[in-house]
C-alpha cells in the first residue's frame, strides 16, 4: 500500500481528521462534538490559523484521504493560535462563551509549551479505516522533512495523557518525553476535556 503525502488543499475534507486528532479537547472547546466538527469545517478553508489548510499535509491512499498533519514553526504558534481563538469567538453564541473561556484558561495553565526554534506538530490523525498501515509514520516523516526545509533542528508535539496509542507511537519513533502536565483538579480536567498533556520532542537525524 502506497501512502502519498502532499500539501493540503482548501477543498480537502480534512476537518473531520483534525477533529479526530484531539476530539475530547475540541469538543470541550466548542461545547460538544457536533459544534466542534462544524467549527473546524468552517475554519479549515480559511487562512492564517492553527487548523488552516495552509499548515496541513494530508496522506492519501488509493485516492482516499487517510490522514492529516498540521505543523508549523513553534515560534509562529502563539499568533496562529490567537487567530484561531479570535475566529472561534465571533462564531460562538454568547451562551457558550463562559465554557469556552474556562477551557482556554485551563488549557493555558496545563498545556506544555514547545521549545522555541523547532517544528511543532499541532495535529496528527489517521482515518480509522487506514490505521496500522503506516499513515502516521509517513506523516511524521513529512514533519521531519518540513523541519529540514525550514532549517529547524527538531520536531515537537503534545498529546493527551490518556492517549496511550499515540504515546506508544511517538516513543517507538524516537520521541523523548519533555514533561507531563496533569490537570490540577477534576474541574480543570472537565474544562479541557481530559486529564492533561504530555510533551515530546525528537531531534532530526
Provide a concise account of the structure shown.
By secondary structure, the chain is α+β, with helices and mostly antiparallel strands. The protein has helices spanning 15-21, 23-30, 33-43, 77-89, 97-110, 135-149, 164-172, 186-192; strands spanning 4-7, 56-61, 64-73, 119-126, 154-160, 176-182, 196-203.
Features:
205 residues, alpha+beta, 7-stranded mixed β-sheet, 8 helices, globular
Structure description:
The chain has helices at 15-21, 23-30, 33-43, 77-89, 97-110, 135-149, 164-172, 186-192; strands at residues 4-7, 56-61, 64-73, 119-126, 154-160, 176-182, 196-203. By secondary structure, the chain is of the alpha+beta class. Strands 1-2-3-4-5-7-6 form a seven-stranded mixed sheet, with helices on both faces. Strand 2 and strand 3 (64-73) form a beta hairpin. The protein is globular, with a radius of gyration of 16 Å. The mean pLDDT is 94.
* Element-by-element helix/strand order: EHHHEEHHEHEHEHE
Q: Provide the β-strand percentage band.
A: 15-25%
Biggest sheet overview: 7 strands, mixed
Tell me the distance between the termini.
Answer: 26 Å
Parts with pLDDT < 50 across at least 5 consecutive residues = none
Average pLDDT, all residues = 94
Helix proportion of residues, in percent? 40-55%
Oligomer: single chain
Give the beta-strand count.
7
- What best-fitting shape do the alpha-carbon axes yield? globular
Q: Which radius of gyration do the C-alpha atoms yield?
A: 16 Å
Classification by helices and strands: alpha+beta
Amino acid at each position: 500500500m502506497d501512502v502519498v503525502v502532499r500539501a493540503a488543499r482548501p477543498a480537502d475534507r480534512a476537518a473531520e481528521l483534525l477533529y479526530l486528532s484531539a476530539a475530547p479537547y475540541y469538543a470541550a472547546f466548542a461545547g460538544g462534538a457536533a459544534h466542534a466538527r462544524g467549527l473546524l469545517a468552517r475554519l479549515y478553508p480559511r487562512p492564517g490559523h492553527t487548523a488552516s489548510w495552509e499548515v496541513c499535509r494530508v496522506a492519501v491512499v488509493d485516492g482516499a484521504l487517510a490522514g492529516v498533519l498540521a505543523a508549523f514553526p513553534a515560534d509562529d504558534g502563539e499568533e496562529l493560535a490567537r487567530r484561531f481563538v479570535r475566529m472561534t469567538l465571533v462564531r460562538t453564541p454568547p451562551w457558550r462563551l463562559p465554557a469556552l473561556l474556562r477551557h482556554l484558561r485551563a488549557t493555558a495553565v496545563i498545556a506544555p509549551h514547545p521549545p522555541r526554534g523547532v517544528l511543532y506538530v499541532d495535529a496528527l490523525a489517521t482515518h480509522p479505516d487506514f490505521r496500522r498501515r503506516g499513515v502516521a509514520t509517513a506523516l511524521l516523516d513529512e514533519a521531519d522533512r518540513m523541519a529540514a526545509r525550514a532549517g529547524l533542528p527538531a520536531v515537537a508535539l503534545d498529546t493527551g495523557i490518556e492517549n496511550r496509542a499515540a504515546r506508544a507511537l511517538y516513543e517507538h519513533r524516537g520521541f523523548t518525553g519533555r514533561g507531563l502536565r496533569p490537570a490540577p483538579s477534576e474541574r480543570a480536567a472537565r474544562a479541557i476535556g481530559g486529564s492533561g498533556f504530555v510533551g515530546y520532542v525528537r531531534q532530526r537525524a
